[in-house]
Amino acid sequence: MNGTRLKKIRLGVRPASDKDLKELVKLNKIVQGWHAETYPDRFKFESDPKWLHQFFTEKIEADDAGVFVGTANEDVAAYMFFSIVDRPESPITYAIRRLHIEHIVVDPDFRRSGLASALIIAAENVAQDVEATEITLDTWTANTTAKAAFQAMGLIHERSWFAKRL
Questions:
Q1: What's one Pfam family here (predicted)?
Q2: I need a surface site. Which of 13, 17, 119, 160 has the fewest CB within 10 A?
């Protein structure tokens, strides 16, 4: 997307509502397609729209989770959903409350527009409101584009997860 076109677009972020369900399902196809193509033994190529509606409705209504949408001229062009995770103190670690971003997706036509950064800022604001001390997210090893974007937004690669298929 070129800079001239972006100047004409009004970007925004707001909490999602049930009126956004159709757009959330549509945007989910983007991230779902990438995951299914890259990891076909783990992710479904098609998700049941009714089940996705229910899934997003539960996230929107939950006390310990949330969904935000990124808009371009009032049209939904991105979303993020997250959970608030409380880990109690243990003999080894301190107690911690974090906001964990489970999904973030931007319509390809609006990538590099600032919508993902705006969603991360919204997550930071929610984290402060709920007294979380950090924001976390994870991304798949193959998703080099997302990793570069997250680092550019100030997130640091702090941990790696290893798996062995059985």
A1: Acetyltransf_1
A2: 160
